[in-house]
Amino acid sequence: ATMGPSTQDPEVIRAMVAAGMDVARLNFSHGTADDHRQMAEWIRAAADAEGRSVGILQDIQGPKLRLGRFPDGPRRLAKGDVVDVIASDVARDGAVPIVYDGLLRDVGVGDRIILADGLVRLRVVEATDDRLRAEAEISGIVSDRKGVAFPDSDLHTPTITEKDEADLVVGREIGVDYVAVSFVRSGADIDRVREIAGDVPLIAKIELASGYERLDEILSVADGAMVARGDLGVQYPIQRIPAIQEEILQRTNRAALLSITATEMLETMTHAPRPTRAEVTDVTNAVRNGTDAVMLSGETAVGDYPVRVVEVMAIICEEADLAPSPVRVDFLSQVPTFASATAKAAVQVVEDLGLHTIVAFTESGTTARLLSKYRPEASVIAFTPEPEVFHRMALYRGVKPLMFDRRDTTDLMLAAAEKQLEKDGLADRDEVVVMVAGIPPNQQASTNLLKLHVIGERARRGTRRFGATD
């Protein structure tokens, strides 16, 4: 859920966490560094108070192109109007200003110019030394600082701006758990951000045609992908977006990476207490198409019901998860590791034996992520001694993260986990669970242990029960 003016209250944030918010998005297109620092403090405090893992996603602005200012106020463009378009931060002589120095170099006759996030469309009919002339194909109103897109043009915008670089430093100070990278066009864009962001996992926002066309290249270096449907709907005909969304999710899952579906998921609830039936269906389809997370934007940032919309989203997702997932991806051939093979075997065991719980011990979060990507019909409980991994695992679908002190031996580790599972009501006495870990412990060893374990078995050695010694 996105933070904003409607969430500038620690009690509201705590209520959102209690309602089911797993990850809080800090949108660095808005607000100051101090605003985001304060919000992060409230988020961490709310998570601690609720005893939950809550991740923080930093969304950097990227090279977002915008209109300049209109000193005389918003301007209406009617279909068929021919207007001048200039590279400027302020309108003059009736021209439409776009804040981009490369406008005349990168945009040519026949190219479309999409204004106000798709509400107005122009097509360039003439190019001169100092301006473009364009005809309005879709009527609408343009005003200060609205977004601009050029779906037909090869723009030479930077991967990240000076603002992004400064914001990434702030993100590292805050201790964000993920960074969402805007307007990704290639794998090189991710590499560039990683040079500054360090070890923080990077989520590539797929919102440009160039990014979608190079998706596999981007996934080879990113940690996940976000289906940014708003900007994709500007780049492509809107009727293509559902199929594009499904393909991005499928390819991201095949790479065993994280996926987020975003934009207008419960848009009606920005100002209404309930969603439309179509929105409920949209969220359900995203879940059943394999997304790891669904994201709320304006609904929580500036909406009237930030807590209620989180409650509704959580209810929809829980209901969608009741049915067996139609998306079962076997990515072992693409990710041929001990951890992937052990995760696959663990999921196979719980399904063959009708078990309900997988327990993972993880230093980096990799084991839990791989288990999650196999979409088991069982709960995944992930123990970690690392606070940053604890928060990152909040984004893993179907995984319950728990903090866990390191133990010197495997036996001590399993015994302590068993005790905590019973104490927290996560497993019953005599229940058979599957445990996966890397041994020896505390060495970030590759996952190499799979154990069928009976809760309470250690307290009464010699009792034969299903799974205990067979």
Account of the protein in words:
The protein has 470 residues and is of the alpha/beta class. The protein has three domains: 2-62 and 158-321, TIM Barrel (Alpha-Beta Barrel), CATH 3.20.20.60; 66-149, PK beta-barrel domain-like (M1 Pyruvate Kinase, Domain 3); 338-455, Pyruvate Kinase, Chain: A, domain 1, CATH 3.40.1380.20. It is built from 16 helices and 20 strands. The strands form four sheets. It has a seven-stranded parallel beta sheet with strand order 1-2-11-12-13-14-15. The radius of gyration is 25 Å and the shape is elongated.
Task: Quickly list its features.
alpha/beta, TIM Barrel, M1 Pyruvate Kinase, Domain 3, Pyruvate Kinase, Chain: A, domain 1, 7-stranded parallel β-sheet, 6-stranded mixed β-sheet, disordered C terminus
Count of beta strands:
20
Instruction: Tell me the number of helical segments per DSSP (H or I, 4 or more residues long).
Output: 16
Let me know the average pLDDT. Answer: 93
Annotated CATH topology of the largest domain: TIM Barrel
Poorly predicted regions: 462-470
Count of folded domains: 3
Q: Distance between the terminal alpha carbons, to the nearest Å?
A: 46 Å
Q: What best-fitting shape do the alpha-carbon axes yield? A: elongated
DSSP helix fraction: 25-40%
Report on the biggest sheet.
Answer: 7 strands, parallel
Query: Structural class of the secondary elements?
Result: alpha/beta
The proportion of residues in beta strands is 15-25%
CATH superfamily of the largest domain: Phosphoenolpyruvate-binding domains
Radius of gyration from CA coordinates: 25 Å
Q: Given this structure, which CATH class of the largest domain is correct?
A: Alpha Beta
Give the second-level CATH assignment, the architecture of the largest domain.
Alpha-Beta Barrel
